[in-house]
Amino acid sequence: MQLPFTGVVIEVDNPTHPLLELQPFYEVEYYSYQDTKAMRVVVIWLLLLLPNYFPWFSISPCMGNQIDNLNRLIASRRSSNPPRSDSELWARLDDVGNSHNSPVYVGSQKGLMQADKIDKLPGQPEGVDFDQYAGYVTVDPAADRALFYYFVESPANSLNKPFVLWLNGGPGCSSFGYGAMQELGPFRVNSDGKTLYINEYAWNNVANVLFLESPAGVGFSYSKNSSDYTDVGDKRTAEDSYVFLLNWLERFPQYKTRDFFIAGESYAGHYVPQLASYILSRNKGTNQTLINLKGIAIGNAWIDDDICTKGLFDYLWTHALNSDETNEGINKYCDFDSGNLVSKMADATDQCDKYQSQGVTEMGDIDLYGIYAPLCNLSAIKPGQDGNVLNFDPCSGIHVRSYLNLAKVQASLHAKATKWSGCGDVGWTDSPSSILPQIRDLAKVIRVWIYSGDTDGRVPVTSSRYAIKTLRLPVETAWQPWYSESEVGGYVVGYKGVIFTTALHLNGTLTEDYL
Ligand SMILES: *[C@@H]1O[C@H](CO)[C@@H](O)[C@H](O)[C@H]1NC(C)=O
Ligand SMILES: *[C@@H]1O[C@H](CO)[C@@H](O)[C@H](O)[C@H]1NC(C)=O
Ligand SMILES: *[C@@H]1O[C@H](CO)[C@@H](O)[C@H](O)[C@H]1NC(C)=O
Ligand SMILES: *[C@@H]1O[C@H](CO)[C@@H](O)[C@H](O)[C@H]1NC(C)=O
Q: Angle 469-475-478 (CA atoms, 0-180°, nearest 5)?
């Protein structure tokens, strides 16, 4: 089993840190939960796009969610070589005259849109009525650094539908392999690893959706300068994504003026607000293309290390996955307010680690990304072509990996022949421990949605709620249920500038998938 982040810049002095122990079994299992989240999100997205049905949503936007390389990143904060976390790396939105106005690289995109058009994906079902594109956008010609994208248009009236960029987390995991192929994209991979079936709940039913593999080193995205794989973090991810967008909009100029939203999940709780802030800041000073950003959405999003970690362990306790003693120990010895996760009590670090470890052990071998979901059993995979979006497949990540490594699939995607994997071996040299200041700023100028599925234990709803609470925003629209047909699908509350919404597990995986 190949672990993401092996042999990288992140050094971990404390390999027994409890969150690291989560890593080995998630590498395979965490693929599974993604389906269910995507389903829920479809409903939420409909809410976003159809505000007339839900008038209290008028301030709206957003979503987000995903994490696994995250375990190592969090642990690395206590290593001898932690990622930089200073917020000075980030220009604030109210900065004027910062360095954000020198032009960025934009190359000629002539003829490239047509060249990127996908004829047909191998094993694709009949009757596909929308256009698909895939290819590379060079973001740094000197380094020959290029990012891979997959773009699906809406089947009907695509010109009148919004334009959405989707980002998965990690850091270092693929928006194409997870987001597009297991969550919100138009196709899923059958258990034969060779053919596709339709996801009727795909977001491109209601929007034109762009999936970006970023930064270079993730999925099909690459750089000829190998130091780009080790010397990367939040900052370059945002900068490269911005350069990508400007070039992509030259390639697809009909999208320049379209309402633009950025959505993502998990560690994209960093990527999405950071890219949004960067775009708004650049928009002020640039004589290049203005990006028509209207809102962001982050789901089950990692937005503050301390708050999200506390939320994780409180979730395990409130969902009867941890004992009372463990939760009491964690809350006694881990000081989530201090910023360094441990209290000043003698021995607190060891005790905090001990209780966190105990929490992970007590939980047992479950899929933390969907605590009620079955685990993937590799030896039980029966290759077939009967995949159905209503039947949750915990092994979908395995099928996607097989599919994306077929030579004819790579060729049809215009991708360079390579060994594709879901999460890249990329280093992570900067990562603010909290994104809340950026979210607070963004909520004043664009629409912000924070959404959360309630069966994700890795970046759980408790974490989102604790984080929002620290923003101290006044409630403008009281907590209330939202419905999918006649069933409660979740809850929604409108704060000044931020919408928070949840999606329910309901009564079983079938129903959950259906969401
Ligand atoms: C944009 O500004 C840069 C200097 O910042 C200048 O070199 C360039 O010519 C300008 N481009 C246009 C299209 O005005
Ligand atoms: C590769 O990138 C590093 C860091 O940006 C830079 O210092 C170096 O000059 C680059 N190497 C080449 C061959 O371009
Ligand atoms: C996995 O599947 C195999 C074959 O069906 C079965 O024998 C085995 O018990 C399963 N393992 C688990 C942990 O369910
Ligand atoms: C869950 O709900 C569905 C549809 O409402 C129903 O058909 C199914 O029997 C329920 N499952 C359980 C386990 O209650």
A: 115
